[in-house]
Amino acid sequence: MDHNKMKFNTKVMHAGQTHDPVTGSHVSPIYQTTTYVLENIDEAIRLNQNQDQGFTYTRFGSPTQAELERKIAILENAEAALAVGSGMAAISTALMTSLRKGDHLIAGDVIYGCTFALIHNVLTEYGIEMTLVDTSNLENIKEAVRPNTKVIYLETPSNPTLRITDIEATAEFAHANGAKVIVDSTFASPYLQNPLDLGADVVVHSATKYLCGHGTVVAGVIAGKKEFIDKARFPYLQTFGAVISPFDAWLLMLGMKTLGIRMERHCSNAQKVAEFLENHPMVEKVYYPGLPSHPTHEIAKKQMRGFGGMMSFDVKGGIEGGKILMNSVEVFSLATSLGNIDSLIQHSPSMSHFDMSKEDRMKAGINDGQVRISVGVEDVDDLIADLDQALSKVAEQIK
Ligand SMILES: *Cc1c(COP(=O)(O)O)cnc(C)c1O
Hints:
Radius of gyration: 22 Å
CATH class of the largest domain: Alpha Beta
Number of helices: 15
Number of strands: 12
Low-confidence stretches: none
Bound molecules: pyridoxal-5'-phosphate
Oligomer: single chain
Order of helices and strands: HHHEHEHEHEHEHEEHHHEHEHEEHEH
Keywords: Aminotransferase, Lyase, Pyridoxal phosphate, Transferase
CATH superfamily of the largest domain: Type I PLP-dependent aspartate aminotransferase-like (Major domain)
Strand content: 5-15%
Shape: globular
Structural class: alpha/beta
Protein name: L-methionine gamma-lyase
GO cellular component, one term: cytoplasm
Number of domains: 2
Distance between the termini: 63 Å
GO molecular function: homocysteine desulfhydrase activity; methionine gamma-lyase activity; pyridoxal phosphate binding; transaminase activity
Pfam family, one: Cys_Met_Meta_PP
Strand order of the largest sheet: 1-7-6-5-4-2-3
């Protein structure tokens, strides 16, 4: 059956799947080897000089990695995909493949911390100019664009305020101005949105999060046109060396099989948690794109198939309130990262965004009492009860 005709849960299970031709092993083996024995010198020359597809050395690719890449390409409706050693490897490889000295980049002002560091501290050292704006308002992008703008980089939904950027409108504007759109779609996963279908040129994920789903692997993926992916693979990935290990690629594929059913539960749990928090007297504000009160709820409804499992909220009592909450939860784990089957909680001002000045943090809407939660797939009543008891500790302890 043509995988394009399959629905998501069938596709994620079967697409790109190969059964081991030697033993018939139902689950593909992990090709845990560094090198490949070649038939003869003619084959060695063809493969080593890139005249032919095949496997020679694991930094250049492995059958396990190749299977993962086929699956990602299918899930993102892309011509090709590249799997790499981390989400940051995906982002840095995609940006380095796209930008040259003297080029200009527009990116969101509220983005993943290390992406900000890459753009702000590293790329600028290589002569790449940048402007950071709130990309959820296209007018800001229009104002920032320059003749040398080559990339518009979007994170949607964004970390940690869950702002949604209209990918379709941004891509239309970018293409009219000779720029490419790269989307970090980590918070959505391919289950909730496909940026390439909306006109984006490249999509990247921290596969560490929802794609893996179990908190066991650090990995990243890039998907887009074959020409772009080929270039990202060679020379960029081959020379930067940010490869994914065969074992990690295999674990990732294991996790991905349940992506659809996990995401369904993440979404329904998160919606209930968000509604609970929005009505709680100790909560000042909830940032969840599934709430009609969220400023970009309408764009989320238009371009996503659900609102995901991530949200932030401002607890009363500022930094102190946030800290009491962190120390009071029992089901949620106090931990960075997200997208696991179990629920995680973090206090953004003192954890993920500690290195921002208070002024920049406030401007980005990351308030003192802002807590970010990754809602897991547990029974939602237990998650709500846990937050409720922790919030009553905040109420008791702050005056
Ligand atoms: C975690 C994350 C990254 C970085 O991914 P790693 O796998 O940790 O390198 C990038 N973007 C977003 C939105 C993330 O959540």
